[in-house]
Amino acid sequence: MMVDLPKDLPLRSDLFGLKLDGKFVRPDLEISIFGRTFRRDLSLSLGLDLAGGSHLVFEADTSGVSKEEKKQSVEGVKNIIERRVNLFGVSEPSVRTSSYKDKDRIIVELPGIKETNEAIGLIGQTAQLVFAEIGEDEEQSLFPSDLTGADLVKSRVEFDQSTSKPVVAIVFSDEGAEKFEKLTEKNIGKPLPIILDNGIISAPVVQDKISGGSAVITGDFTVDEAKNLSIQLNAGALPVPVYLVEQKNIEATLGSESVAESVKAGIIGLSVVLLFMMIVYGKFGIIAGIALLIFGTITLALYKIIPVTLTLPGIAGFLLSVGMAVDSNILIFERFKEEILVRPFADALEVAFGRAWDSIRDANIATLATAFILANPLDWKFLHVSGPVRGFAITLALGIGVGLFTGIFVSRNLLRVLIKSK
What we know:
This protein is α+β, with helices and mostly antiparallel strands and 422 residues long. The protein has eleven helices and 19 strands. The strands form six sheets. Strands 12-13-17-1-16 form a five-stranded mixed sheet. A four-stranded antiparallel sheet has the order 8-9-7-18. A four-stranded antiparallel sheet has the order 11-10-14-15. α3 (67-87) runs antiparallel to α4, α7 (255-281) packs antiparallel against α8 (283-305) and α9 packs parallel to α11.
């Protein structure tokens, strides 16, 4: 028996790093915090409607797979392709399956990618599943063993008879059973990372020497998590060859002229809003404008770090959140006008912030609830969410969060500075 552990073990880049044209791909940002390394490409990701991209269709050869395992294998290949194109640096790719006249196809759309030869090579590789050992060095680097997906016959979800919790059962071939027995004997009490396409999908701890070629991975799994792990293992154990049958470049569906006009309209709208704020509220309006610029800077940084793939609906979500951020300032300033009639300047400002907060909070919570439903992060089946709708919801939610920060903290502290100057 093996017990599953978290998958944040370090990887040896020279063993498992992604290579393109003989070079390792390095991100623009790499930060280590508390022993964990965060890597991120800081280029802004644009969707198909803004930047265009590539449309690839792969056909899966399922002739060597039984009818019962066919659907599972194709789904596993789809999941692997999604992981691979993300490793390639494509955010929010569209990967979906299609079956027609006994032909199983995987349709891949890559935003912003026009030169697709490297991506095609990466996607078309057969899934590589390998069992690794943890080294004795301080970094606990991983070293691949000779036990691979070729030695794995199958994996399936079962339920523990004593706890009724889902577990993942794996079965090896005769040759794989011998390798597995030696590997578990050598690593008793240690994690045995299982690596699929350069990523750790599970790191179970070996409880004792396992003979016979059968093992069970236990852990605090949900049924869906156990099923997903089983699919990933089967995808490595039963690689389904895929062949490129169609390739074409997609131009930006909106066209560069439409995008430029949309950006122009957004800039004009924001300028009018800032001008209105300065005319009506004077110095307060200028402070609101500064807070709005800080809001835009923080939001853009989040788009790059997360990253968020921008589509036209996503830009619309951002502009709507700008309106919400300005609305917060208006509520505060209007409340201040009332309080200044009965209180000193400094006290009126603090009271205005406190009393406007209830309205700001309720309005933003209602909008966040709507964004949550549109994004459908829990993948509820009764909600059918498309990529553009989800992009709109994500940019709107991020904008509201940043808007609350700038409206309550940035604007407030800038106004406090203004009070001290008086």
